Amino acid sequence: MYNLLLKRSRTDRALPSAICSVQSLHIENIRSIRLPRIDIRAAQWCASSENHPDLARLLADPRYVGAPADLLMLGLSNSLVLTPDESPRNIPDFYTVSGGSANHPYASHALWFYSQMVRWRQVEFSEDLVAAARATYRPDIYCDALGLKRSDLSTMRAESTGFFDDILFDPWDLKSYLGQLGVRC
Fold first, then answer.
1. Rounded distance, CA 127 to CA 104, Å?
2. What's the distance, CA 59 to chain centroid?
3. Which of 21, 43, 82, 179 could form a disulfide with 98 if both were Cys (CB 3.0 to 4.6 A apart)?
4. Angle formed at CA 104 by CA 103 and CA 110, multiple of 5 degrees
5. Percent of all residues in the chain with a pLDDT value above 90, rounded to a whole number
6. How far apart are CA 21 and CA 35, in angstroms?
7. How far is it, in rounded angstroms, from Cα 40 to Cα 98?
8. What is the SS3 assignment for 98-113?
9. pLDDT at residue 1 tops 50
10. Is the pLDDT reported for residue 67 higher than 90?
11. Taking the CB of residue 158, how many other CB atoms lie within 10 A of it?
């Protein structure tokens, strides 16, 4: 089912890795292996600034991001170079992978990812794919694995949000959002 690899960093600290191989997957197995707990532990490791050099080195591998480690370190420290002639700019909370609800599987996040795939013409818009994206993130499994009441966390963020493009994203109205981006559905 899942083979979770635990690597060691050069300083021999435990390095949780999100490397899983999936052969066959049944929803009952996800519940029993507590994958959300593994995700939380990996995110906590990634969030710790003392691990950022190791994380940047890992992400620099062409199998993952493939960008220079020093450039990745900027993002991991909430600093971004937005234009070629600009010095790094601090963007508070740009890199947030742990704490609060950072790991909660909001359906609105899956819908935003799907909308970006439509935006960049990786897939066509369809109501079936909207339904599939909505069903992909499972807050019920997340809450069960972490011992939370399902009422503690919602399935979808209610607020509309502007991301990098400053266009309001409304998970309840993908067609309107995509229309603002010039995408016909």
1. 24
2. 15
3. 43
4. 100
5. 41
6. 13
7. 7
8. CCCCCCCCCHHHHHHH
9. no
10. yes
11. 8
